[in-house]
Specification:
This protein is mainly α and 131 residues long. It is built from six helices and two strands, in the order H-H-H-E-E-H-H-H. The chain starts with 5 loop residues before the first helix and ends with a helix.
């Protein structure tokens, strides 16, 4: 669990740093080895940032695909699947059926359309050169 949970990982590392009683250390030795990521994983997957004295959660790095980025991408995918996907499907179906889905406010956009008409309409001189 500590491999994937920042709080547990941080707690385990703090416990190792502070040291515990001999019996607890022996009991946890096998469990720690299984639960903690290797130093190589800690570095490559960017679990934590900072030095050994002061570790903080590493920021999400989507290019390196670190643990934080993987977690955030999973959250994003779940939110999209549960909250947004259905709305997008419905909106696309409405657009395909010709229903106005209020993507455009025609009165508000009329000023912009007028500017575009003026920009893309040839003057008499330009029209004469084209002809």
């Amino acid at each position: 669990h500590a491999k994937f949970c920042f709080i547990c990982l941080h707690g385990r590392l703090e416990g190792k740093k502070e040291g515990t009683g001999a019996e607890q250390t022996q009991q946890q030795a096998g469990q720690d080895d299984d639960d903690l990521p290797s130093p190589v994983d800690m570095k490559e997957l960017a679990y934590l940032a900072g030095d050994s004295q002061n570790s903080i959660r590493a920021p999400a790095d989507f290019e390196r695909n670190n643990l934080t980025a993987v977690w955030l991408r999973g959250v994003q995918d779940r939110v999209y699947d549960e909250a947004i996907r259905g709305m997008v499907v419905q909106q696309n179906a409405d657009i395909a059926a010709g229903v106005d889905v209020k993507l455009v406010d025609h009165q508000e956009d009329e000023k912009d359309r007028e500017v575009l008409r003026r920009l893309f309409t040839f003057s008499d001189e330009e029209q004469a050169r084209v002809d």
